[in-house]
Amino acid sequence: MEVAGSKAQPALKSGRKLFFQLFGLFALLISLWALATPLMAFPDEPAHTIKAAAVVRGQITVQEGSSFGHGVHVKVPAYIANLDAQRCYKFRPDTSAGCAPPIPASDTYETIGVTTAGTYNPMYYWIVGLPSLWLSGAPALYTMRIVSSVLTAVFLAAGFTALSRFLRPQIPVVLASVSMTPMVLFLGSGINPNSLEVAATMAAFCGFIVLLDNAHRPQAIKPAVMTVVAASAILANTRQVSLVWLLCALIVGLSFYQRRSIITAFQNKYVLLAVAATVPGVLLGITWILLMLNAPASAGVAPIGIINPLPGVRADQGFVTMLDRFFGFFPQYVGVMGWLDSRLPDAVQMFWSFLIVVALLLPLAVRPWRRTAGYWIALALLLIVPAVLQAQVVATMGFIWQGRYNLPLFLVLLIAAGIAVRHLRISQTEPAKSVGRVVLLAGVFAHGLAFAYILRRYVVGIRELANWQIMITNPGWQPPLGWLALCVAYVALVAFAAHCLYGYVFPGCALLKWPSRTSSTKRWPVAVPAEPLPAKTAADSHSRS
Question: pLDDT tens across 108-125, in order?
Fold first, then answer.
């Protein structure tokens, strides 16, 4: 890398066109995960599905007499209330999803369902639950998943679009792409507000940092204003802890700028407009949280099997234990799918571990360190905030924290690393292009292997005798459209994304360039026989003698 000079950054497409292209790409990728993963194979998906079906039918608040034991009792269609039977392969990686019984589309009569998401904000659930009003059975559930996928794709695309308007966006965009691990795309495919929480945090952070960076360019920050307003309002009304992620994102963004620059930015009318428009949505989310503080007992408890109270453990002990587990969560950032029972292959974990280590070390090359303050604060928040949140409930609920809960801060950290080194420029030399090509092709392979491996886990199970060949000869389960078609479509989309990213990093260059006949002839010249020498004449012989 080199220090950025006068050479201009690659030309960017119009914001609207770029947003819709990114939205289409993310929506397709995440929807393929939604089809490739068996129904209810997503963490806590049955509880959130029941909650969505209840909210869209008007059961929004928790009433007295409806909360018993481990959740809230609601009235939903029978095929949704009885989804527990779909989890016969849960915590059994050697068992295919073929053990799950069919979901009867005719069981639409209302019955009692139990959800542990009773106190969650109803906004996400109302949107996702809409398909259950006119569809039933598996088609309704897959459609609900795709609606959730589209919501996640909207904010991932908005985050990247806002980040592209950064004054020096190249490296931040690259590290934002690194943060799109298989786990992030997988999370977006299930019925669970965790996925929307991750995407909205990323979008809010990217929009906010662009607002601060472009305060002197009013026309350039209009898309960022819309991103911050929408993402903040959605984030405040997703989960109770989501407001913590929003606050962390804003703190990291402010840490990159000096006080004078921050004051100048907040004198901009567009920045003030963004703040003013964000307040109502945040207040609405806070109101819901206060309302649920008075909800009936047992309305919002952890699912059975996760809660494990440790009454003898002090909060400070829980805090220190979480600090000790800091690096243990990183494999979950890359990919531990299903109910945390399907870890991605070591090759995939090693590839992303390499990229993450490089990204986290890059800011060490920047001087002065004041430019990297936001990065160090983001790293500290990822270390400390989850430990504080877990320590508060360790005595009553035990160690329930999972790596996917940290993903909002993880994405902020990687993007912050890119912003810290934004003054560097990626070299345009041939060796740099070759390295970029190798890394991106390896990324396509890693994404494809992750997708195929999780399909293998559900099609035949992961066991010594279940090799890749059995997926073809004797599959125990098949997703909609078939596992092979989904794999081909997924790899093609990832390859297209890698091609676009390579062209962005190295303008005018293609990820794969097939040599033409002319160029190959020049590079590998063919030996041509020499013309025969003329016959020696007697005069020549006489003169030589």
Answer: 899 999 888 888 999 999
